[in-house]
Amino acid sequence: MAEDVLAAIRALAPALRERAAEAEALRRVPDTSVKELEDTGFFQLLQPKAFGGRAADPLVFYSAVKEIAKACGSTGWVASVLGIHPWHVALFDPRAQQEVWGEDPKTRIASSYAPTGEAAPVDGGFRLSGRWHFSSGCDHAQWALLGCLVPDAEGNPVDMRTFLVPRTEYRVDDVWDTVGLRGTGSNDVVVDDVYVPDHRALSFGPVTALKVPGHQLNDEPLYRLPYAGMFTTTISTPIVGIAEGAFDSYVETTKRRFRVSYGQKVAEDPFAQVRIARAASDIDASWLQLTRNIGEMYDLARRGEELSLELRTRTRRDQVIATERAVGALDLLMENAGGNAMRTGPNPVQRAWRDAHTGRGHAANDPERALLLHGQAVLGLVVDDTMF
Prior knowledge:
The protein has about 400 residues and is an alpha+beta fold. It folds into three domains: about 1-105, Butyryl-Coa Dehydrogenase, subunit A, domain 1 (Orthogonal Bundle); about 110-205, Butyryl-CoA Dehydrogenase, subunit A, domain 2 (Beta Barrel), CATH 2.40.110.10; about 225-380, Butyryl-CoA Dehydrogenase, subunit A, domain 3 (Up-down Bundle). The chain contains twelve helices and ten strands. A hairpin with a 5-residue loop joins strand 4 and strand 5. The radius of gyration is 21 Å and the shape is globular.
């Protein structure tokens, strides 16, 4: 059962927490952690049953991500990103799925969706070249999903597609060196004039319309959920988990802290108590809204009912607000954590603060763009976005 995976993740969390500093030092998730996550079955949660996966309720997946991120932000981020990709590959032509999982159903896939490369149409496919940035966990993957604009005969972009490329046809440049999420190994993927057949290039049009080639093989309701809601929740969930883990650590430390300046235990400071309450409420609200929306969409998909534009844009609305609230909660805690929290070293609250602020910079967390979509939807205006 998928819930067994969640139980195994909770049992693994202390070991992931102990390796958080190692992940930062390595600038990638330790191989041991990836192997242990694999052994729990985590990476197969959203993989289709046709290739040995569980096609599980997405709430189980996101709950597992949150538990991992509570223990180690970088590991949670990489687990979330690598863990969602089987869902996306399940939408591709069955021939592409066979190429990825046919020989090894535990094959992992990385990504970089921003269209920074070039795709030249040729007979039967495309010639792909370019450099893609911020491919989290790419050192642990054997394939990559790469976004690219497709031009017409005059060179004008007319389509946005995702290309599936095997590790044998790209290289990874080690360029990731940041203040937060240091352990994600979000390096560059470089492709030099590689042929990609048509069946390994999926347009966003069918994905948005929820009518993709993969449905002929994978008819589970999981694969009738919208890309925008699934992928952006994949980015916000680790940040909420990071905040929740930091909150737990902050509370335990605060019980023991003594503030010399005021001659009192910090736990007895009413202002510290109010900050704790506010932070806890914001973290709870973030998680409740994320799970409500994904749960509603999944229930509709299971019943074969339409997912309204209002629900789809509400999911984006609450996703960016969840990130905003989680980061704000961490700010509240750090403002009252004292000078020692800012020392270099393995301070879990400080690490979480750096990780969350770094994750906040992801394109999926741009609040104005996401909130605009929901405002337009409820006003009955045209929502002009390729992912809706």
